[in-house]
Design a protein that fits this description.
alpha/beta, 23-stranded mixed sheet
Length: 685
């Protein structure tokens, strides 16, 4: 009589492994032992002694030496039934589940296969489990184990219908081959052959062997051996031993974790990619990418942090690192419908707007702090310092203008870059005229406050002309690349000017602080830092205290001067703007969460709701010749512009961090933790 039930197949499988019993896991042995003790009828009784001998031989053997792997969650049935016991109690278990756990516990404490961990979990429940099994008779047809986890054996894969089965929408038509579909959790015993496809929905999957074929899973998977085929996880993580040549691995919103990777076709980790050892060649996309040892050759796209002990080109393959602002499902070939594309483009636009708002928060807070410190200094300064304060004021106003101009260029640059990366048009309501109107609002605010001095009108028109040249992103690729080059060159020029002005401000601030120690600005800044509060809030309190209780009549008179009153009004407008920006940030975060939930509900597309507050970085000991790109499109440019690619010098034993700068890749000091978005200031009392 052919095997028809899951238990029958497990027994058949274990009996067929007499010469390889070391490969059998406790889960199968417990099923066999429970089956042997409950067998009835002539056929079952005749196999009882055979099963008993095999289980006894299994107990006498040491566990098989298994190579290091992150795909360790193989015994899904044990995991599911134990979780049921711990969460709902013994009364929730069926008769066969009770017997299964009793046998698992007994086997876990016997012979060379003892499992201290399993024993520790089940020992408090062992007595009740035995009493329950002995007190109840087996109900007819009560095989709950069949419904908890689907165990798939090699013969079932081979017997599956032959048909093409894409792992994700838009994938080219795959070859015909045996295709098995099942509801999870699913455990595949014996691996997935190179011509087979397994599709799992509604739960996780484990593969006890090599993945040579194709696996699509909705909730993550563990592969105990190497991946040489294809796996796509709609959510959850992908864990395995090694990822080897021609493998195609995608965890849309999760982590891909393995020991080593050797020239895979593609690895995509929506959250992280983690190698405990090394990575050699291949193509990788991840929010964060970490190698515990070496990265040699290959192309790596990262939006957060890439790190390894050492990074070097391979003799036959360069090492390219692309520091990105975003990666998408289109990178690995998934084609989405028009509504899904619109939702993803909307999410990308909201993320970019959040980045722009964050930049504006920092710029506006710096302007408010500059105004507040100027008010305090004017209250205590005399005529001989007026020239210094005027020079300081001019430099501060120009820095404020440059912050807005650079922020505007960043916004235009990010939109064009997104279009090039996505190969699609961004919705008008999130980029085009709506975004440019936000930019002009910031620039007009400066003009009203008198911060926009000579040349500002021309610079304003310069940005408008670049915006119009983008057409908003309806021009062809060559035109957009040309405008990007202009944006980058202008941004770099303004950044260099801003660096010089900031150095000038540092000198002037030191000069006035030494000349007016009674203003107490240095001590105030130190106290604010110690108390972890915005410097602006401390300055506001200082100004309020001076107004309410001036130390001298001269200070009182100076605080009432028209110029100081103008500075106070400007500071208050900046504070009001900070509050408005805070509301806008909160609204955008709610919008991004809503779009993400809709994408997940309708299309099972996990959208990253995290907005990076620091640019992408690459950290490690670099060999000479590693190429670090600021923009993905430059990879396809045979003649990249100057500054578009950084070729690393040999760093020797020194660990270096390279960061995606505003206009190019720059070397920076590594940070232990990413900085957080500055909070909006408190309103003036």
């Amino acid at each position: 009589m052919p095997a028809t039930t899951m238990v029958d197949r497990v027994v058949k499988y274990v009996l067929s492994m007499r010469d390889q019993l070391a490969q059998v896991r406790l889960e199968e042995a417990a099923i066999c032992s429970a089956y042997g003790k409950s067998a009835s009828g002539f056929r079952e009784r005749s196999r009882r002694s055979e099963i008993s001998r095999v289980v006894k031989n299994w107990l006498s053997m040491d566990s098989a030496e298994r190579p290091a792997t992150f795909g360790r969650r193989q015994q899904l049935l044990l995991r599911v039934v134990i979780n049921l016991l711990l969460s709902r109690g013994v009364d929730s278990l069926s008769w066969d589940e009770t017997g299964f756990l009793c046998e698992a516990f007994d086997l876990a404490v016997q012979g060379k296969r003892a499992s201290e961990r399993l024993r520790g979990i089940l020992e408090p429940h062992a007595g009740v489990l035995r009493m329950r099994r002995e007190a109840r008779k087996r109900p007819a047809g009560a095989d709950m184990l069949e419904t908890r986890v689907r165990l798939v054996f090699p013969e079932q894969l081979e017997e599956s219908a032959r048909r093409p089965a894409p792992l994700f929408p838009g994938q080219p038509r795959p070859p015909l081959g045996p295709t098995l579909e099942a509801a999870g959790p699913v455990r595949v015993i014996g691996g997935i052959p190179d011509d087979c496809t397994v599709l799992v929905t509604g739960g996780p999957c484990s593969v006890d062997g090599y993945l040579l074929g194709r696996l699509g899973v909705s909730d993550g998977c563990d592969i105990s051996e190497n991946i040489a085929g294809s796996v796509v996880a709609a959510s959850g993580n992908v864990r395995c031993r090694n990822i080897i040549e021609k493998a195609f691995v995608v965890a849309k919103s999760g982590t891909v974790k393995f020991v080593q990777a050797m020239n895979p076709q593609l690895v995509f980790g929506g959250a992280r990619i983690v190698a405990s050892d090394s990575i050699s060649r291949g193509l990788f996309y991840g929010a964060d990418i970490k190698s515990g040892n070496l990265i040699r050759g290959g192309t790596f796209h990262v939006t957060g942090r890439l790190s390894a002990k050492q990074l070097m080109p391979d003799e036959a393959c360069p090492l390219n690192i692309v520091l990105r602002t975003a990666i998408s499902f289109e990178e690995y070939g998934e084609q989405l419908g028009s509504e899904a594309l619109h939702l993803r483009a909307r999410a990308a636009g909201i993320r970019r707007k959040l980045m722009h708002l964050g930049n504006m928060v920092r710029a506006t807070q710096a302007e408010a702090e500059h105004a507040a410190s100027t008010i305090v200094l004017r209250a205590f300064s005399d005529l001989r310092l007026m020239n210094v304060l005027e020079e300081r004021g001019r430099a501060g106003r120009r820095v404020a203008v440059l912050n807005r101009l650079i922020g505007a260029l960043q916004e235009l640059y990010a939109g064009a870059e997104e279009a090039l990366a996505q190969h699609e048009q961004i919705p008008d309501e999130l980029t085009g005229e709506a975004v440019f109107s936000d930019i002009e609002q910031d620039l007009d605010e400066l003009a009203r406050d008198g911060a926009a001095e000579a040349g500002f009108a021309q610079e304003h028109e310069q940005i408008r002309a670049l915006y119009e040249r983008l057409g908003w992103l309806r021009n062809d690729r060559t035109d957009i690349l040309g405008v990007l080059g202009q944006l980058r060159d202008q941004m770099e020029a303004w950044i260099v000017e801003r660096q010089g002005l900031n150095a000038q401000l540092d000198r002037l601030n030191g000069e006035v602080n030494r000349a007016v120690p009674e203003a107490g600005l240095e001590a105030l800044a130190q106290r604010a830092k110690q108390d972890r509060e915005p410097k602006l809030a401390a300055l506001q309190r200082k100004i309020m205290a001076l107004k309410n209780n001036p130390p001298t009549a001269d200070v009182q008179r100076k605080l009432q001067a028209p110029l100081v009153q103008l500075m106070i009004n400007m500071m208050q407008r900046r504070i009001q703007r900070l509050n408005e920006l805070g509301v806008s940030i909160k609204t955008c975060k709610h919008q991004l969460a809503a779009v993400s939930e809709e994408l997940q509900a309708k299309y099972r597309l996990g959208e990253n709701t995290r907005v990076e507050t620091t640019p992408a970085t690459a950290t490690g000991r670099f060999a000479a010749g590693v190429r670090i790109y600021r923009d993905a499109y430059v990879l396809e440019d045979p003649k990249p512009a100057a500054g578009a690619v950084l070729k690393t010098p040999d760093s020797g034993e020194n660990t270096i961090t390279y960061q995606r700068g505003l206009a190019c890749v720059i070397a920076v000091e590594p940070e232990a933790e990413p900085s957080t978005e500055p909070p909006p200031a408190r309103p003036t009392p």
